[in-house]
Design brief:
The complex is a heterodimer of chains A (187) and B (575).
Chain A lengths: L4 E10 L4 H11 L4 E8 L5 E10 L1 H13 L3 E7 L4 E12 L2 H9 L3 E5 L3 E8 L1 H11 L4 E6 L3 E4 L5 H26 L1
Antiparallel strand pairs in A: 1-3, 1-4, 2-3, 5-7, 5-8, 5-9, 6-7
Chain B lengths: L5 E13 H11 L4 E5 L5 H7 L7 E4 L3 H15 L3 E5 L3 H4 L2 H9 L4 E7 L15 H4 L6 E5 L5 H13 L5 E7 H5 L1 E12 L10 H13 L3 E5 L1 H5 L3 H11 L3 E3 L14 E4 L6 H5 L6 E5 L5 H4 L10 E6 L13 E4 L2 H11 L6 H23 L8 H11 L5 E4 L3 H9 L8 E2 L10 H11 L5 E6 H4 L6 H7 L4 E6 L4 H10 L14 H7 L3 E5 L2 H13 L4 E6 L23
Parallel strand pairs in B: 2-3, 2-4, 4-5, 5-7, 6-7, 9-10, 9-12, 10-11, 12-13, 13-14, 15-16, 15-17, 17-18, 18-20, 19-20
Antiparallel strand pairs in B: 1-8
The chains are: A alpha+beta (187), B alpha/beta (575).
The complex binds thiamine diphosphate (TPP) and magnesium ion.
The site of magnesium ion (MG) has 7 residues of chain B, from α19.
């Protein structure tokens, strides 16, 4: 048995209705649990980005990625281990107000978003362990609501792989066009 | 629809027209000549427009929408063209799902156009509304919904491009009623590429070198051919590769007829009911060259044992198939029509006579223990194998063979013998009972100059038997050989072998097929005795129109050889 580990999968796609469920189905079919999923615009106009965190084996992650790339509207998929990315999650906590809570949150590097007479809303950004730890610390004081976002991640590498891929595509397209007009001329 | 990122060429401009007309014009530009369909409320505008296109587009009115898809599959498989279907929303659309799943599994290029309720009604549970794009996500290569007339040409161009390019597959275009009725200037641009889609990945030259080296060094190689060769029209390229490499070649069920059965290096069919040699010698091979096939579990048996002493080269167009089931030591992505010649160029000319002779020894064992008893049974009842053999002889092994699913399918695949490519149309990946009869209709329309013979079981025939009405109405001269054992034979075989002969609900009490045939205007004959068989087959062959030949066969015959499900293929049983 190969051991499971965490992977951050980024999927770049055209902005097509229904693609999200097509992508998640690839994971459910293979019985891989999605730990977190976020979608957003990417830095490139018109290209959508999914960031998906899973725990699985190296072999399965490769198979899953190939199945995702098979979708007609998916441009490219990349897989990273946690060391290769900078990743963050954001958590919001609505806690019953008290002096001890205020002291606690100030020690934990949080942003206070709102202070009301009987509650306080704070935000913490960080890794899951950190936001989870704060949740545990706050619990004794009464956490009325708690919510955590999915992981967002950017890649540490100096190379921008998607850009390179798109440039490569563009080059191939120009070449094949040139070849096509060549054969047309010779006919 | 996001067409901004798609590359297009060949602009064809035209006048303003309705969405329905635009759809039919799109068909014409894509070279469509035949539609299989069934009308209904949400597609009436298209049918109305079709009335004026009857001289250019032949429409076959089926009796059930599942039949439309299977017929389009039969048409596509024999002709290499895209099969096209037209159905209404709701129940019309959902009736096609089995066909789409079948086409996806067996990589058949199809475009299915479904009507949809008006766009203002979407999501309101309107009459005959289903979320068909949602439903078919898992059974299509691509799908989309069109809500405006002006989007129809671009959607159709993309649909045909996706369906036929790369590894082919079924595509659904769901068109709302208002889009069919609306009007727009007609402007069609054929699609030649889509930014997010790489239909044919480039092979890595280093992998080709490595593959050539393995082939040159191999002492006991076996080539395994799948439908990829047929889909890629690479039969000649395969032949050249085989001639130079000298390797023996086996075929998957769907690859059958890509190599003629009597070719000197051909050693038979792989898989559960395949031939003895390519299965029993699997563990003797030191190199397996997979060519356009996907290691279905019916081929591999236990994947852990498959080719356990062999290196594996995998020539494949779909990167998702590489390493999916069996680890490929040398994956060569690309269209086999391109990669095979590149490989042939790199290898040395060789012969493997002694190694091939070993397969002939296996053939003799199979001949003695399986084939002779199957073709010349001792008992009074006709056996399926001898019926197939008699038909094959009458047609000199040259016909398009269509099968349904079950024992009769395996006997047809094993005993017909093929001379030309695209001669077997069968449901492999999904194993869809009811596929045969409608697929035979489509096959005849797709290959009008060839004889089309369907082998079908008594169970499977009754799953889509209403298509006899289509044969009657559209006068389609298919020859139907019903191998009637009054059993769901293949399931009965499993019950006999693995469930202690407890025949739980596999016995069929059948209707009078003669009356059904006659009611549908088909010539009919029933044969129970061996002496009449050849004569009846000759009569069927000579008949001008459609013909149903019912052969009452031994009720409890089994298909052998057999690899028990999940067992290593070398554990193939001869009886
Ligand atoms: C739609 C569908 N339902 C069930 C099955 C399971 N199945 C596979 S073979 C078979 C028996 C087929 O019986 P028949 O058509 O009489 O053919 P025979 O095996 O007797 O030649 C069945 C039920 C299937 N393949 N497809
Ligand atoms: Mg039967």
């Amino acid at each position: 048995m190969e051991t499971e580990q965490e992977y951050i999968i980024t999927v770049f796609s055209e902005n097509k209705v229904g693609l999200l469920s097509q992508i998640t189905t690839v994971f459910t079919c293979r019985n891989v649990n999605i730990e977190s999923l976020t979608t957003s615009e990417s830095a490139l106009q018109g290209i959508h980005k999914f960031t998906i965190v899973v725990r699985t084996t190296p072999e399965t992650v490769q198979k899953v990625v190939r199945q995702i790339e098979k979708k007609i509207d998916v441009l490219k998929t990349f897989v990273y281990t946690p060391e290769e990315v900078v990743q963050q999650e954001i958590a919001l906590y609505k806690v019953t107000r008290s002096n001890s809570v205020e002291q606690l949150v100030r020690r934990h590097n949080v942003r206070i978003l709102e202070i009301d007479t009987d509650y306080i809303v704070v935000e913490k950004t960080g890794h899951k362990e950190e936001t989870q730890q704060l949740f545990r610390l706050l619990q004794p004081y009464g956490v009325q609501q708690f919510v955590r976002s999915g992981t967002v991640a950017v890649i540490k590498s100096r190379r921008e792989l998607l850009n390179e891929y798109l440039e490569e595509l563009e080059k191939l397209r120009r070449e094949s066009e040139a070849a096509a007009s060549e054969t047309e001329k010779s006919n | 629809m996001n067409s901004s990122s798609d590359e297009t060429q060949q602009t064809v401009d035209g006048p303003r027209m309705t969405g329905s007309q635009a759809l039919l014009e799109s068909f014409l530009i894509e070279g469509v000549d035949t539609l299989f369909g069934y009308p209904g409320g949400a597609i009436i505008p298209v049918y109305d427009a079709l009335y004026d296109y009857r001289d250019r587009l032949r429409h076959i009115l089926v009796r059930h929408e599942q039949g439309a898809v299977h017929a389009a599959q039969g048409y596509a498989r024999v002709s290499g063209r895209v099969g096209v279907c037209l159905v209404t929303s709701g129940p019309g659309a959902t009736n096609t799902v089995t066909g789409l799943a079948d086409a996806l599994m067996d990589s058949t290029p199809l475009v299915l156009v479904t009507g949809q309720v008006g766009s203002s009604l979407l999501g309101t549970d309107a009459f005959q509304e289903t979320n068909f794009v949602g439903i078919t996500q898992a059974v299509t290569k691509w799908n989309c919904q069109v809500k405006r007339a002006e989007e129809i040409p671009a959607a159709m161009a993309k649909a045909f491009y996706v369906a036929r390019s790369g590894r082919p597959g079924p595509v659904v275009v769901d068109i709302t009623k208002d889009a069919q009725c609306g009007s727009a200037p007609f402007h069609y641009e054929k699609i030649t590429s889509i930014r997010s889609y790489v239909p044919v990945p480039e092979p890595d030259p280093a992998r080709l070198d490595e593959a050539a080296r393995l082939i040159d060094e191999a002492r006991r190689p076996l080539a395994m051919v799948g439908q990829g060769v047929i889909l890629g029209n690479a039969e000649a390229e395969l032949k050249a590769f085989l001639e130079k490499s000298g390797v023996p070649v086996a075929s998957t069920l769907l690859g059958l007829s890509a190599v003629p059965t009597d070719a000197p290096q051909y050693v038979g069919m792989l898989g559960m009911h395949g031939n003895y040699g390519p299965n029993i010698r699997n563990r003797d091979c030191d190199l397996l060259i997979a060519i356009g096939m996907r290691f279905d579990d019916r081929v591999t048996g236990s994947p852990a044992h498959f080719g356990e002493n062999a290196r594996i080269i995998h020539l494949e167009i779909d990167p998702a198939e590489i390493g999916k089931i069996i680890h490929a030591d040398v994956p060569v992505t690309g269209d086999v029509r391109q990669t095979l010649p590149q490989l042939t160029e790199r290898i040395h000319k060789r012969r493997h006579d002694a190694w091939i002779a070993g397969f002939r020894d296996c053939d003799r064992i199979e001949q003695e223990r399986v084939i002779r008893p199957a073709l010349h049974p001792s008992g009074p009842r006709i056996h399926m194998g001898e019926a197939v053999d008699t038909v094959a002889r009458a047609y000199a092994n040259d016909a398009v063979v269509v099968t349904d699913v079950g024992q009769q399918q395996m006997f047809a695949a094993r005993y017909f013998g093929f001379r030309r490519t695209r001669s077997l149309v069968t449901s492999g990946g999904l194993g869809t009972m009811g596929f045969g009869l409608p697929a035979a209709i489509g096959a005849k329309l797709g290959a009008p100059d060839r004889d089309v013979v369907l082998f079908v079981g008594d169970g499977g025939l009754q799953m889509t038997i209403q298509e006899l009405g289509t044969i009657f109405q559209s006068k389609i001269p298919v020859k139907i050989v019903l191998l009637n054992n009054s059993f769901l034979g293949m399931v009965r075989q499993w019950q006999e072998l693995f469930y202690d002969s407890r025949y739980s609900f596999t016995e069929l009490v059948n209707p009078d097929f003669g009356m059904i045939a006659r009611a549908n205007g088909l010539a009919y004959r029933c044969v129970e005795h061996r002496e009449e068989l050849s004569d009846a087959v000759a009569e069927m062959k000579a008949a001008k129109g459609a013909y149903l030949l019912e052969v009452r066969v031994d009720r409890q015959e089994n298909v052998f050889p057999m690899v028990p499900a999940g067992a290593p293929v070398a554990e193939i049983r001869l009886e």
